[in-house]
Amino acid sequence: MRDYSTNGFSNVVEFTPFTLWSRSYVLMTTNRRLHYQVIKTCKKMGIKTVAIHSDVDASAVHVKMADEAACVGPAPSNKSYLNMDAIMEAIRKTGAQAVHPGYGFLSENKEFARRLSELLSNCPLLLGYPVMIKASAGGGGKGMRIAWNDEETREGFRFSSQEAASSFGDDRLLVEKFIDNPRHIEIQVLADKHGNALWLNERECSIQRRNQKVVEEAPSTFLDQETRRAMGEQAVALAKAVKYCSAGTVEFLVDSEKNFYFLEMNTRLQVEHPVTECITGLDLVQQMIRVAKGYPLCQKQADIPINGWAVECRVYAEDPYKSFGLPSIGRLSQYQEPLHVPSVRVDSGIQEGSEISIYYDPMISKLVTHGTNRAEALQRMEEALDNYVIRGVTHNIGLLREIIIHPRFVEGDITTKFLPEVYPDGFKGHKLTDFEGKELMATAASIFVTDSVRSRKFLEKMTGVPAAKQEQKNWELSVEIHDSVHSVTVSKSGSSNIVEVDGKTLNVTSEWNLASALLPVTIDGTQRTIQVCSTTVHLSDIFFKKKNITRQLRFRWVTQNLTLKLQKKILYVCQPGAVVALSPESEGAPLRDIESHSVR
């Protein structure tokens, strides 16, 4: 939509590479005879049309042919077809992205062209709220805000430009229409310097928080082959149109009717590219190097398969209980990747002893699993998360595990609003079922008994004095969980423990290697993975503390009193970070701007 004063069709042709990406509309101003041709051509290109009409033209043929219609006034042309105010209002209401002026009337009217240019220059008014404000050089959700009104637009512009400058050294911004409750699906493209370009299927990236992806998978459960091909062909058309050569990603928002809207193109390798490599068998880094060297692509579009299913979880040093993940800092005191799980890939740049600081992205690793189908890939991901040992920093593995086992996710019923819809009050951790609680107490009691027996034997060897006249076989314990105390009895027999919890008897068996971070346990024939953290038992990311009650209460009381005494002089923030701006200390105004991992 560049030159509204011309009477040709060139202003519409510019949408050709994008016709299937967005809900494009062409608004036609005058001349019934031309309307037929415009509507026919637009339908062929996948563009919807809006016909304006006067009161007496409400039943005209061109009005019936168009997808939408807008009345612009009574019969006299100076009150309808020449009524610029009414036509401009029709453009705003329908969201038309281009105007075909026909010929005659306003087709060569300079004032009409000027007013259209003014409308184009005011994005929120043209697009309608909500709008997305984002860093033009951005990625990873940084420098991105959603604005629902003028005030939020001004605030979003300030914070987005500051984050963009901090993260990318470029404070330029883009403003685009925000589509509520969509899926985020992207197409991987690969193009060489010889005019060849391929689309390597899609990635579903809808599980997000703060507009940053958390869980990705390939392919998508939502796309049929026809939509997949249409999106892929449009992505390739864009790459060719800009003469792009390398690996790149074209991102789309997809609505519930499988209409897809162009979001942006990333001219780089994406964090989530491993899932594409898993299902296609291609090494994208190798392909980028070959293209940069000038070699043509070896593959044809027909050679690109969908081999099984792949899922990626982004493991972050974050506290998932705060806004689904606010940054955590510290040193990795213990770190063990679950590489023994079949078909697991871990892309990380850290090791035991590494520091997580406030200055860079808090991502620990990309955890990827591949299976013959989605169910197998998810089962392997669940096992991998249970076997991932991270100590020293708060991490989001508990949230990731809850996401992939949630019924909505398993069924593929996901959008970018998945997290706030599933957890409207924030993530609170896994809620134990009654049976899971009994399993956990039985396991904790077994670990306590095993540790006690070994400690007694060690003491006997050190002192040479028997700790008891005969070996103890039975224990009666009180175990506290969820602020309630339960009676637990343990009868030990070799490596097995017969544990009775509230009348339920469980057989708990293990090799009981308490020095290992991971403890395989079998409970009534069912395999479980336990993580033992000092005096804390960890079952499938469920924590149970065995601390002495008196000490626990005393510590809690001291902490509460300390907070009460100092609360007037100390300002607490929900995450570590650097103070980057001091605001006027007037009532209702922000006091400080805190930045951590380039997020304010």
Automatic annotation (TrEMBL):
UniProt keyword annotations, A-Z: ATP-binding, Biotin, Ligase, Lipid metabolism, Nucleotide-binding
Cofactors named for this entry: biotin
GO BP term (any one): lipid metabolic process
InterPro entries: ATP-grasp, ATP_grasp_subdomain_1, BC-like_N, Biotin_carboxylase_complex, Biotin_carboxylation_dom, Biotin_COase_C, CPAse_ATP-bd, PCC_BT
GO molecular function annotations of the record: ATP binding; metal ion binding; propionyl-CoA carboxylase activity
Cellular component terms (Gene Ontology): mitochondrion
Entry protein name: Propionyl-CoA carboxylase subunit alpha
Pfam families: Biotin_carb_C (PF02785), Biotin_carb_N (PF00289), CPSase_L_D2 (PF02786), PCC_BT (PF18140)
Domain ATP-grasp residue range list: 97-293
Name of the gene: PCCA
Domain Biotin carboxylation: 22-424
